[in-house]
Task: structure prediction
Amino acid sequence: MVATPAWPPKSAPRLFVPGPLAEGTSVSLEGGQAHYLGKVMRAGPGDAVILCDDKTGEWLAEVSAAAKRDVTLSVVRRLRGREAVPDFWLCAALIKKDRFDLVLEKATELGVAAVRPVLTRRCVADKLNPERARAIVTEAAEQCARTALPGLAEPVKLDALLRDWPEERRLYFADEEGGAPASEAFAAHDGPAALLVGPEGGFDDAERAAIRAHPAAVAITLGPRILRAETAAIAGTVLWMGMRGDWNAAAT
Amino acid sequence: MVATPAWPPKSAPRLFVPGPLAEGTSVSLEGGQAHYLGKVMRAGPGDAVILCDDKTGEWLAEVSAAAKRDVTLSVVRRLRGREAVPDFWLCAALIKKDRFDLVLEKATELGVAAVRPVLTRRCVADKLNPERARAIVTEAAEQCARTALPGLAEPVKLDALLRDWPEERRLYFADEEGGAPASEAFAAHDGPAALLVGPEGGFDDAERAAIRAHPAAVAITLGPRILRAETAAIAGTVLWMGMRGDWNAAAT
Result:
């Protein structure tokens, strides 16, 4: 039997903080994070907290003082370096707020490197609250024990996305009018990739033509059923992660 | 150019009705469905409606009369037979209501044959409202243009599920402690399959041991991150459907 470390406990709270974190430094938390630790998790002096800074990895910290409005932690030691992130972007058209929240949460859990919200002609939403989006992504990363936050870009118009597309990155395009089965397309190509998914109602004809004409684009299909926009975003991401991401690597 | 039929329009409302449907028959709708057609979709005499009965397939119908509380339709002709459904069950532990609703909706969109809710020791929920669950599944099927509803079983305890398991059906078990990468396991086996996913907090040790000891069970992993229960259910379903379901078939 190998002795398994009982410390930190599996249930220790996880938080992203600005950092950079280093051994022996002290971290002060206020506002929502202090409330979460002190009131929700009832953490007191000596309790373990896992901190991440999206730069140096994951650290064990201990509560040194817990007052009503602020909690102070001291950083004990590094547990893991920042994870390697599969090179996959999710370029998802903005959709209704609650459905886009789901895309942000699931994309983070599934391990994407970046979410790039896209504006298309049939988008009913044209704004994304960056603080709100950042909070959803951060909470999802804490939940799934990621040590890296996905990048979160400003919403960009489709024509600008295509114009500035990095040529070495494959752009899988979930085309409702049909394309290669996603699993075949993903099996056939290794390297940086992205998935482009339209809004409810899809891309219009001019948009579809522009995407299909792009040299990096490969039209794919996600099966014979009509998937909701957020389902297509999640499904394409799952399939790429399962086949080309890090789901095949040995757990670390 | 091939002329495309303008009738029924793509935006025609879709509804599941008890049936069985047949050409020339008349269908009366009341309650929520009448309200949806008359008030939400503002359907009037002559408007096209797509009807499915989960038995005979998909039919074109036309509104013959629309009153305040009931709408009458006449069935014109069959558009498609009932779809072939990939032989995949999702056996998902009951979780919080809103999260299980998401599982029901996404499993339907993704094309499962059946959802079998499972009761385990760490389940915080032990009941599923069957009407509510049926409504979610039906609405999702209408949304994604399925002509078959997934089966929806009563919640069953894990030990009963394992005891009565049909021996020819592979039972993929999303094991947080590790297993074969899901894509490898799915690539290695063709035939009837099911995915078993635990609740938040996972299966306990005795449950894990019982599952692993089952001759039909194959432990799989869905990557290095900790997925929420509903994310694991959706992700495992996507990956099986994308690799082994009907996502590779030519669109019909």
